[in-house]
Amino acid sequence: MRVWIIQEITVASSARVLYGDQILLWDDLLRMLLILKAAVAHSKTFDGKSLNLPVHLMKFHDMYAGQVRRPISLLEALIWSRPAQATDPRDKIFALLGLCHDSSTYVPVPNYK
Question: Which of 38, 41, 96, 105 could serve as a FRET partner for 31 with CA atoms 20 to 30 Å apart?
């Protein structure tokens, strides 16, 4: 999963996931992933780590615009998004700045130079 998707999912009122010619609502996909994560919790052959990022995306959304609504720290966002991919390593931080209450403390002016 790409790091910029975190911002898109977090601020979206609703999102769709396109997979080939299939369209899934993000909420439906997330529910399926949570059920799968619970089902494999006791598995000895599948550790479920690949499901962590989608679950963290749910946390981002809930904290930013959902039911929980509390500030997200940049450190917290970096930890949750660690498995996300980026072509430019700076995007691992820049993609999260708009979501975090303390981002200007650490990166006052984002600059690719």
Answer: 96
Burial class (CB in 10 A: 0-12, 13-18, 19+), 59: middle
Q: What is the DSSP letter of 100?
A: -
Q: Please choose, from the candidates 66, 112, 67, the residue with its C-alpha nearest in 3D space to the C-alpha of residue 91.
A: 112
Structure tokens at 75: 């450190």
User: Would you state the pLDDT for residue 100?
Assistant: 94
Of 19-23, 33-37, 72-76, 84-88, the one with minimum mean pLDDT is 33-37
| Coil, helix or strand at residue 19 | strand
pTM: predicted TM-score of the whole model, two decimal places:
0.76
Closest CA to 3 of 59, 82, 62: 82
